[in-house]
Amino acid sequence: MPRRTELIEGLMQRHPLVPREAVIKEDLLRGGVAFDESALSDSANEASGDIKPKSYFIFSFDHGTLPELGAAALRRPPEEIVLTGGPYELRRTVVSVRVNPSSPYRVAADGDGVLGLYLDGQRISDVGVPPMPEYYRHKLANGKSVMEVAPTIQWGYLIYLTVFRVCQYFGAKEECQYCDINHNWRQHKAAGRPYTGVKPVEEVLEALEIIDKYDTAKTSTAYTLTGGAVTSQIGGKDEADFYGQYAKAIEERFPGRWIGKVVAQALPKEDVQRFHDYGVRIYHPNYEVWDRRLFELYCPGKERYVGRDEWHRRILDSAEVFGARNVIPNFVAGVEMAEPFGFKTVDEAIDSTVEGLRYFMAHGITPRFTTWCPEPTTPLGKANPLGAPLEYHVRLLQEYRATMEEFGLSSPPGYGPAGPGNAVFSVSSFMDSLPAEQAAPEAPEKV
Ligand code: SF4
């Protein structure tokens, strides 16, 4: 049996509590997927095709730069794929697309044009692609596309508003060592693609108007306001006022239409209160990696400007503003094991990560995670092109669920349905791995 197939089947056997869908999804997220020519649409124009293209909504989430990816970049791959059936009898599994031409996973069309996912040359599932949403076919008055201003991900559930496309933590001494936000901005500019650095509020409202008009099924349920850290000001506004102004404008124009979320730094409580006053309902002050030494090494800007201990204190304080259920800090699962500084064994990495989970969950706060994509223009991605061991990701899913159960917590609000076959969260399998009966409420609880 080829080695990668052996690896996933071995992990499925040893970890029966982790859905087999999640094993394959994690492997695709950490290592990427190749697209056969037959599986790429010919739509260089993102508004005219039948398939919803990859929007590059914040980071590149690819295993090569645009010039390296060639056809896969010019003929845009889909934003996500959905896996079903095959020898593992996969339930419906939505996976964010991370392109890697040398991955052992390949999406290809058969002689009848039917898409499948192949591993080590064997067909392991059917592949569905997201249809082009009607709202992507309409442009703003200034000619910008809705995909550029307000792309949707998670099968249309989440509107992803990266309103500041760069980060004020800039350069090797400040940027987080796994983050390619600044590179991704540069590469899209170099490729001549539209890529707005700071999105004007009016443009965001106009794009949302189009989504609201054409999303008649009301699939879009939440929006996330995010972008780089603001360490000084943008247009005279600090981080809370800068991101908060969008929430205020959205809530005034479309009161309660979507659940408002913000991914920002862990700010002092007065600033967090301003987020809430502006209408944000879920706060993501991401702590990135739990281990102290790794946080200091991987997040030098955050360490210098705020510091790990203060960051964690602020996360706990923000629960007094938003309610513990609505504070959902993210970490980047896998960087714990990155060479040369990371843990050498899966056991150590899991122990450390679980210590962090327990710290927050003991306060009623449920962290969540995205699966690390080792982008090649980042220091950690360059040194670790294969990412973290799959065993780490699979065991994390198991421990995450067990720790939540220990603290009596259920899946966090604002992520759609939980459970294998139900989840739409596409950049990690944590929602696929929680029990379906723990489906989150669609609106966050009141504080
Ligand atoms: S704070 Fe770190 S992870 Fe966030 S955008 Fe800036 S460099 Fe990237």
TrEMBL record:
GO terms for molecular function: catalytic activity; iron-sulfur cluster binding; metal ion binding. InterPro entries: Aldolase_TIM (IPR013785), rSAM (IPR007197), rSAM_sf (IPR058240). The keyword Iron applies. Signal peptide: none annotated. Keywords: Iron, Iron-sulfur, Metal-binding, S-adenosyl-L-methionine. Coiled coil: none annotated. This is Radical SAM protein. It comes from Streptomyces spectabilis.
